[in-house]
Amino acid sequence: MAYSASYTFFIFNFLFFSISFSSSNGDVPDDLLESITVSRMEKTTHLHFYFQEVLSGKNPTAVKIIGDGRGFGTTLMIDDALTQGLGRDSKVIGRAQGMYSSAAQNDIAFLMVVTFAFTEGMYNGSSISMLGRNHVVDDVREMPIVGGSGAFRFARGYALAHTVWFDPNTGDASVEYNVSVVHF
Ligand SMILES: *[C@@H]1O[C@H](CO)[C@@H](O)[C@H](O)[C@H]1NC(C)=O
Ligand SMILES: *[C@@H]1O[C@H](CO)[C@@H](O)[C@H](O)[C@H]1NC(C)=O
Q: What is the pTM of this model?
């Protein structure tokens, strides 16, 4: 039984994932075949888009769900459009879905927990997960990419964000993102 389960796993890897694989030596007992290393070629992908946050009007894409304003603990749920160009009417290529919270007591820094879900082109249906600190007063903020799905399985990397436009009265903003990810 142990042999056949391992063997199935091995074939499964071979058929669906693997171009090349290696095992450390020829003496591996059959029931340790699961430890075979599957190696694939990594790619680096650079993505450039704009994050459009709308708090104003009848159809805001960012809604406060916790807290009393912009103070410590305030949390917003977002479903912001990601566009190809800077203008809000530019082509939508995905959504930034998730939330962010004011996470600094004596500063303006957010904990960002956001999925970039792509809806166009070769990345339609794939997503990237970002988790990090957004010290919004900095010109450029760096946040880690901690994973992904679809074309971005096993993704890791970083996002650079720069606020291009911000309306202090409404909180509406357009933020430029450059995302660099290594994935398979
Ligand atoms: C993206 O994928 C969805 C689901 O498969 C599909 O309905 C939609 O038409 C696709 N969009 C584009 C622009 O290809
Ligand atoms: C993104 O990359 C472009 C092209 O290299 C550059 O002009 C822009 O300043 C970058 N923006 C950020 C936020 O990194």
A: 0.81
